[in-house]
Specification:
Largest sheet: 6 strands, mixed
Main location: membrane
Number of strands: 19
Shape: elongated
Membrane topology: Single-pass type I membrane protein
InterPro entries: CD80_C2-set, Ig-like_dom, Ig-like_dom_sf, Ig-like_fold, T-cell_Activation_Regulation
Organism: Oncorhynchus kisutch
Subcellular location: Cell membrane
Distance between the termini: 132 Å
Strand content: 35-45%
């Protein structure tokens, strides 16, 4: 087995999901796995995965129990990659190294791969609300990682990004989960379209949400906004119903009065 040059990678793992730590020995000939020994270890020299002459994980650290899987059917072609599952915050920025040895004539020892793991959690699409009483808009989201960047854009006569001094933002770290929550607020005026953007620097992705501030927005007594709600003037409807009821009552009353007269003075109705 010829000694390949060591390769260095940087990968991103999503908290709670799996990530691939890739490594290829790039062997020019088929590898006899009965003579192969390789293992992955972290920067604290804890063993993630071990393979020795067909046996797996004899030297695995308990931190990685049931969290790693290799591709045994592809080992003969030089694939030493493993899948690390259930990524946690403790895995962040860890440097993982793979070491391989092929026993036999002139044992070959290799340190073929080095992978740095970045860890992230996606922020959900933020909630954006408008308070018409205080004329401000609030943006919030939670359970993301790492600390994000928050920006606002406003569109009225043009489209512009608000300066930091125009935005009030509070980003907090949950001590138990280690994840971040975001709360941000800006002042607004009517006839504006406001958008809140949350940027994750590790994933290099942005989640956004937009709301429109228009004169038709109605505010309830607590100051919460009910967008698209238009009050209905029910006064004319009530007046119409009352008039109809009065006419019906008059008609019924007139009918019974006429019938009573016929019974009291029947002779007048036959003259």
């Amino acid at each position: 087995m010829s000694a390949p040059a060591a390769s260095e990678n940087e990968v991103t793992g999503i908290i709670g999901e799996s990530v691939l730590l890739s490594c290829d020995l790039k062997s020019s000939t088929a590898i006899d796995t009965a003579r192969l020994r390789f293992h992955w270890q972290d920067e604290s020299e804890r063993v993630l995965y071990s393979f020795e002459k067909g046996e797996e994980n004899q030297h695995q650290d308990s931190l990685y129990t049931n969290r790693t899987k290799a591709f045994r059917s592809e080992m003969s072609s030089g694939n030493m990659s493993i899948k690390l599952s259930q990524v946690t915050l403790e895995d962040k920025e860890n440097v993982y190294r793979a070491f391989a040895t092929l026993f036999g004539e002139n044992d070959k020892h290799n340190h073929p791969c080095r992978t740095t793991l970045l860890v992230a959690a996606r922020f959900p699409t933020p909630s954006v609300t408008v308070n018409k009483t205080n004329m401000n808009s609030t943006c919030s989201t939670q359970r993301g990682y790492p600390q994000p960047m928050v920006t606002w854009t406003i569109q009225d006569r043009g489209n512009r990004t608000l300066d930091p001094w125009e935005v009030q933002t509070n980003i907090t770290l949950d001590s138990e989960s280690g994840l971040y929550s975001v709360w941000s607020q800006v002042n607004i005026t009517e006839n504006q379209t406001v958008t809140c953007h949350i940027f994750n620097p590790v994933l290099r992705e942005t989640v956004s949400n937009t709301t429109i501030v228009s004169p038709s927005i109605n505010t309830d007594p607590a100051g919460d906004v009910q967008e698209g709600f238009t009050p209905i003037n029910i006064t004319p409807i009530i007046i119409t119903i009352v008039i109809i009821l009065v006419l019906i009552l008059f008609s019924i009353g007139g009918y019974f009065v006429d019938k009573k007269r016929k019974l009291q003075f029947p002779m007048f109705y036959f003259l």
